[in-house]
Amino acid sequence: VSNRDARVYAAVARIPRGRVATYGQIATLAGLHGHARQVGYALHTLPEGSGVPWHRVVNARGEISPRADGASDRAQKALLELEGVRFDPYGRIDLDRFGWKPRSRPARHR
DNA sequence: TGCTTGACATAAT
DNA sequence: CATTATGCCAAGC
């Protein structure tokens, strides 16, 4: 595995449970600022027992990226729900609440 | 070696 | 907010 992939895994591993991060954020944290696609690609080549919570990574809209697999996306949604992440009727996540803020404490509404 | 595709993001319409 | 077009880097063929 490349050094680049390792950085991506590390960034993903930083995501707290019950929260999600966008590929862009991961890319930045991994030192690949502006290269979100490589993040996705790195995860695509991700080994199963890597221990990386890839299911906490979603696209900029807060929804699960549909891939050709057709099964992994469902599993991702299930895993996120188990962690307490709520999905909209459209299958999207409210990034305003569940979007990970790699900086300070969780966003508290009201 | 060169072309095409890809777990995406961002700006413009 | 949704859709369309463009840019980025790496892997596959």
How are the secondary structure elements laid out?
Blueprint: H1 3-13, E1 21-22, H2 23-29, H3 36-44, E2 57-58, H4 72-82, H5 95-98
Parallel strand pairs: 1-2
The structure holds a DNA duplex (13 and 13 nucleotides).
Quickly describe the structure.
Helices cover 38% and strands 4% of the residues.
Annotation keywords:
5 helices, mainly alpha, 110 residues, DNA-binding, two-stranded parallel ribbon, globular
Give a description of the structure:
This protein is mostly helical. 38% of the residues lie in helices and 4% in strands. The chain has five helices and two strands, in the order αβααβαα. The protein has helices at residues 3-13, 23-29, 36-44, 72-82, 95-98; strands spanning 21-22, 57-58. Strands 1-2 form a two-stranded parallel ribbon. The longest helix is centred in the N-terminal third of the chain and has 11 residues, at 3-13. The chain is globular and about 40 Å long. The termini are far apart. The structure holds a DNA duplex (13 and 13 nucleotides).
Helical fraction equals: 25-40%
The helix-strand sequence is HEHHEHH
Tell me, rounded to a whole number, the average pLDDT. 86
Q: Compute the separation of the termini in Å.
A: 44 Å
Structural class: mainly alpha
Let me know the number of strands.
2
State which percent range the strand residues make up: under 5%
Contiguous helical run count: 5
Low-confidence stretches: none
Shape: globular
Whole-angstrom Rg: 13 Å
Give the strand order, joined by hyphens, for the main sheet. Answer: 1-2
Biggest sheet details:
2 strands, parallel
